[in-house]
Amino acid sequence: MSDHISGPRALSDPIADITDVYAFPSPETAGRLVLVVNTLPMAAPDALFSAGLLYRFRLRPLTRSDDGSGWGFVPGDEELVLDCVFDAPEHVADGTGEHRQRGTCVTPGGEQVSFLVNDEAGGEGRGLRVFAGVRWDPFIMDARAALATIATRKLAFTDPGSIFLDGKNVLGLVIELDTGFLPGWELVGVVAETLTRGEFNVRIERVGRPEVKNMMLAPKEFDPVNRDLEIRDLYNMEDAFHLGDSYAGAFRARLDANLAFWDGLDGTQDWPVGEDGSHPLTDLVLADHLVLDITRPYVETGSFLEIELAARRGEPHATCGGRTLNDDVMDTIFTQLVNAGRGPTIRDGVDGATRPGTDAFPYLARPNPDPPEPPEHH
What's the CA gap between 255 and 31, in Å, rounded? Predict the structure, then answer.
């Protein structure tokens, strides 16, 4: 789930479908920032990247500001962009019928770093290292139970839970970046995108935090304003750092309704809504980028949303924030949605990936050579 199959376009063109985004200080090398974007749900062991896509990370410095919501992070105008593209696959001339593919990433200084897909050493340039290839999908969540919760309007998690089609693969793209490219930056907003490649780039997908589209925007039945509107492709077209006015009302109506649904699952309202029905979490969700403190060291778990929640309480944050590969972020999300962190942890019964991420480059676990068959879509 996370951002797997997050709308009609992702279903029709899964090669451009972003499944997850991660950003964390390197546990291996001080002064380095790790960025991960996974794409193509249910990737086959021999899957390759699209030569027709641009794979992009966008980073902006964030400053604190009191906007009245308590969330208060404003993206600056300065932006660091990392773009990766891939050549068309080539036949390997050894009679095996296999293909080889090269990729190129452009550093902030304009240097091109070349790498071979599925080469664990990756490619390296000044202050930047890149890996791309098939990896084990590290996402931690009982997706079926989450969907059953929405369908039945009752918490449907069990202990233990199960990861849907555990052992599935994704196409992983990992960039390790010297924080010297971000001079004077402390808090950083991170988003990943897939776009069409060429003279005119059309954004196909963009992802910051997990499960915004599938758990918070997808359900239609609670929204009194846009009950028949599939809203996720419209959301993908928006700039994560500068939401336009055209569809903002539709996004807000959907989130206000769906966030109120999640909050009511335990029978109490922990997020009081405004007189106009506005939900206190809506502004946070719409600021849809990971928030990371690049001056703090790596921590394995507990950093996701920590910076944002500390700001809400008016307290200094204690961790690097962002999102690590092995942090069970869905328990954090469900707990905030349902009881605002005031009650017991809302567990989905899944606490880790069967093959967790590692603490050494390229961080993502090796792929499953025999992944489960993808479900049929009708």
Answer: 37
